[in-house]
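User: Sequence in, structure out. Go.
Assistant: Echoing your sequence, followed by the structure tokens.
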Amino acid sequence: MIPSEDSSAHKQRLGHISKQGNSLLRFLLVEAAQAAARIHPDWRRRYLHLAMRRHKSIAKVAMGRRLAVRLYWMWRNGCGYSPSLECGSYAVTARYRTWRAVERRALDGASRSL
């Protein structure tokens, strides 16, 4: 569930989700995302927001991709499933941690120079 890419001259454009990869896995991820949207209020809110902006089928695939990203980060960090945004389940969290570490190093360097 990777977006197609059309890049040129240092400009990256990510398009629609491509149909590459295992079709059974894609199917199961979309089904699991639909079930999560029926049961969990946060997932339902995100799905309905996407469905309002796009078509329902596009929103289902987007939620399936979101679930795949969350599963990847859970596997990478070695933590269990939690419906909330805990345990660094998104790449944004990892970027934020990296940014905070760089910021701390800069502050430490500034305090030493004083």
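User: And one key feature?
Assistant: The helical segments are 23-39, 41-53, 56-77, 91-113.
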